[in-house]
Amino acid sequence: MSSIFIDPQIYTGRPASAEGRLDKEMAVYDLLDKLEIPFTRVDHEVAMTIEDCQGVDQLLGIEICKNLVLCNTQKTKFYLLLMPGDKQFKTKDLSKQIGSSRLSFAPAEYMEKLLNVTPGSATVMALMNDLENQVQLIIDEDVTAQEEFGCHPCINTSSLKMKTADVLQKFLPAVHHEAIFVKL
């Protein structure tokens, strides 16, 4: 097993205690509980990249999504792209489908301001922090084809597994976000 794990234990639901946890992480668990979305969780060392998450994928039996926060050149339009971790991101393929040219990675300060996450912690769960709907969610259709969905709870020291249908049908409506579906 990967050395990323402090304790390679799979837990059902939220941590027993909030001690040592960030408020934004606990807020994710609160919302998932309120929406009655069951999930399993594993805690681990900081996982900044998809490569870091490979052991997590194996332990949870899923493929954690690649989560990219993007923006246009003027930094007036922001996007959260979810795509399979093993797919290569090509800006031109996405730009064509969403009608926005010159996409680039959003600077860290915009990730924090709009989603309350830092680089390496981007996640669909962060849309709960985008109260003004400034970030457009974009999902590669291959992500929706998977029965189960993996993501971080707004911090990259834990990973969650839940039903993809729960994310699409319960979580997104609750946080008032709609996805644009693309094929990359």
From TrEMBL:
Domain of life: Bacteria
Family annotation (Pfam families): tRNA_edit
InterPro entries referenced in this protein's UniProt entry, alphabetically: ProX/PRXD1 (IPR040285), YbaK/aa-tRNA-synt-asso_dom_sf (IPR036754), YbaK/aa-tRNA-synth-assoc-dom (IPR007214)
GO MF annotation, one: aminoacyl-tRNA deacylase activity
All residue ranges annotated as the YbaK/aminoacyl-tRNA synthetase-associated domain in the record: 44-168
Family the entry assigns: Belongs to the PRORSD1 family.
This protein's name: Prolyl-tRNA synthetase associated domain-containing protein
